[in-house]
Design a protein that fits this description.
Structural class: alpha/beta
Mean pLDDT: 83
Strand order of the largest sheet: 2-3-4-1-5-7-6
Radius of gyration: 25 Å
Number of helices: 17
Distance between the termini: 63 Å
Strand content: 15-25%
Low-confidence stretches: 244-275, 476-482
Number of strands: 14
Length: about 475
């Protein structure tokens, strides 16, 4: 296995200080490991460019002798484990570059804390889910991703591409972050960790995922694969991530926290985790907006823009406006979530900064508005202003509101009866309280209202997410007005 890291920076040899491996030292530096040995050397050292290489040589005899080598008789002997980047390489990264992974540098502390023009190249990876999954994992982290597929047999091009890829990542990023991303995501790509996964792996995932995993759109996939789909561990990791997540993360990631309570276990696949609650919620809202005949849609409290990205390819929607009070969230939406979309889809989307409790004439005249996991972040005394701003002044034909169901909090592990799902939630309504609020709003502002359940629904306590669909009385939807 071969990983190279290149720094294009003057003086480029500072990479040696950051990695704690001297590029002037002759020959390769060797580090013994339980499953083989790692070597570090510098194939390129110049004034403005320096490359460090980590070469991992896995001992196939040790692999055969370790327990759990494979189910088939020949599996321990005939496999690609010594050659393809996997959890073996992650262990080597931590063992060889541990100080750099922790961000420590006695000689260059300022450089260790600064974003640098770095490039990483992994010679051979095997991505479960192919190039698409690989891009879904690395592009949200801000990397320019280049993937080189390899033919199954160069002499037989008609056989097509093989399962192996070469991965290159480029970006202005701290070295510690690059190493942390590789440490976590290489085993996720390979999806076949070579050692037993226990409670300590949750701590490792949270430690190396600090500052980026909670915001990652594929955090459920990452946690599931990293923890080898051990549901109690995945539930624990996602619950702890959620507790530390920023307010715009909402309550995403709660579905796996059911720790084994699956709405449809038969639909689960070994190489693809079932959709999380957040995905199911957005898919439901998408369907409701389409069924309402909406063309021009508001996403109020759009966060990092996941609903915008879901709506953009749908030709039924001609204008989509995302509104959020957080400039950070809007920047994430623009630069990460929406940037990969085709130009024609991005052209339909506008992002606006604004507070939801004030009248904003830019939001008037729309066919529909989505308010997904937003109201619970408002102070109760601001609800009346929010209601007027949305239902009286903006007054879209259709309004879809979703919010956590406090009755269902009993389904979530580690959550006490008086606790809320997120530290930024100001309140959470029971089903009865939400129905009463929705009925009062509908009556006061001349709307009809119906209820909807989103995601998994328990017979006793109802759905994890509850929703309401408001329809303005005396106003037809866009299709009827034609």
């Amino acid at each position: 296995m071969l990983l190279t890291i290149t720094l294009a920076h003057q003086p480029a040899a500072d990479l040696g200080f950051l990695l704690h491996k001297n590029p002037a030292r002759p020959g390769a530096q060797t580090f013994p490991l339980a499953f083989g040995q790692a070597r570090v050397f510098y194939p390129e050292v110049g004034t403005d460019r320096c490359t460090a290489a980590l070469l991992l040589e896995v001992d196939p005899i040790r692999l055969v002798r370790r327990p759990g080598g494979g189910d088939a008789p020949l599996a321990p002997y005939v496999n690609d484990r010594p050659y393809v980047a996997s959890s073996f390489l992650s262990v080597a990264l931590a063992a060889v570059f541990g100080s750099a992974l922790a961000g420590r540098s006695g000689e260059r502390p300022a450089l260790a804390a600064a974003p640098l023009p770095l490039a990483a190249r992994v010679a051979v990876v095997r991505a479960r889910g192919g190039e698409e999954v690989l891009r879904r994992l690395f592009q949200p982290l801000g990397y320019a991703v280049a993937v080189e597929p390899h033919p199954l047999d160069p002499t037989r091009p008609d056989w097509g591409a093989g399962p192996y890829l070469t991965l290159e990542l480029r970006g202005d990023i701290r070295l510690r972050d690059l190493l942390a991303h590789l440490y976590v995501l290489l085993p996720v790509l390979d999806d076949e960790k070579h050692y037993w996964v226990g409670d300590d792996e949750v701590a490792k995932l949270l430690r190396h995922g600090a500052g980026w995993l909670a915001d990652h759109p594929e955090r459920e996939l990452i946690a599931s694969r990293y923890l080898k789909r051990r549901r109690p561990l995945v539930a624990d990791a996602l619950a702890r991530l959620l507790a530390d997540a920023p307010p715009d993360a909402g309550s995403a990631g709660l579905a796996p926290a059911l720790a084994g309570r699956s709405p449809d276990p038969d639909q689960e696949r070994a190489d693809e985790p079932r959709p999380g609650l957040h995905d199911l919620r957005l898919a439901t809202v998408h369907g409701l907006l389409g069924d309402a005949g909406a063309r021009r849609v508001l996403d109020l409290g759009c966060g990092e823009g996941k609903l915008l990205r879901l709506l953009a390819p749908d030709p039924r929607f001609t204008e989509i406006v995302g509104v959020d009070a957080s400039t950070r969230s809007l920047a994430l939406a623009r630069d990460r979530t929406l940037a990969p979309l085709p130009e024609a889809q991005r052209a339909k989307i506008r992002l606006l900064q604004g507070a939801l409790s004030y009248r904003d004439r830019r939001l008037e005249g729309f066919d529909a508005a989505a308010v997904v996991e937003v109201v619970e972040h408002l102070d109760p005394w601001r609800l009346a202003a929010f209601e007027r701003a949305l239902f009286e002044f903006a007054r879209p034909v259709t309004v879809v509101v979703t919010t956590p169901n406090r009755d269902a909090n009993a389904l979530l592990p580690g959550l006490g009866p008086a606790e809320l799902r997120h530290r930024d939630h100001r309140f959470e309504w029971t089903r009865a309280e939400f129905r009463a609020w929705a009925a009062a709003v509908a009556s006061r502002f001349d709307y009809g209202v119906g209820s909807v359940a989103l995601g998994f629904e328990d017979d006793e306590v109802g759905p994890l997410t509850q929703g309401a669909v408001f329809t303005a009385l005396g106003r037809a939807n866009k299709d009827d007005r034609r």
